[in-house]
Design brief:
Layout: E1 3-7, E2 10-13, E3 18-25, E4 33-39, E5 46-51, E6 58-60, E7 68-73, E8 78-83, E9 92-99, E10 113-114, E11 118-123
Parallel strand pairs: 2-11
Antiparallel strand pairs: 1-3, 3-8, 4-5, 4-9, 5-6, 7-8, 9-10, 9-11
Length: 124
């Protein structure tokens, strides 16, 4: 079992940047595929980005491709989400998630473990 804690959210103007971090504990971090999801008020949780066990392969939602970058440091048991050129529509609670072998990188149901979330608010 792995415990996940997100940090780095906040309030930023459109065009600005934030870097989210997700620290993992309780299990061998490199055994887990890691994902970032987000949920805006009144909307379903949606996929943002994912990264494989060693950080070679990355996957992005079309809405964030070219603006967001996911990375991981297995020596620090941490996954990051660098968010640039933020837009008001990026406003949401951002969650990191983990699973040893997800059936899909893109779906909420494929992940077993979730953090508590961190709020990102982008003003116009």
């Amino acid at each position: 079992q792995v415990h996940l804690v997100e940090s780095g959210g906040g309030l930023v103007q459109a065009g600005g940047s934030l870097r989210l971090s997700c620290a993992a504990s309780g299990s061998t971090f490199r055994n887990y595929v890691m994902g970032w999801f987000r949920q805006a008020p009144g909307k379903e949780r949606e996929f943002v980005a994912a990264i494989d066990w060693i950080g070679v392969s990355t996957y992005y939602a079309d809405s964030v491709k070219g603006r967001f970058t996911i990375s991981r440091d297995n020596t620090k048991n941490t996954v990051y989400l660098q968010m640039n050129n933020l837009k008001p529509e990026d406003t949401a609670v951002y969650y990191c998630a983990a699973r040893v072998r997800p059936s899909s990188y893109y779906t909420v149901s494929s992940y077993d473990y979730w953090g508590q979330g961190t709020q990102v608010t982008v003003t116009s």
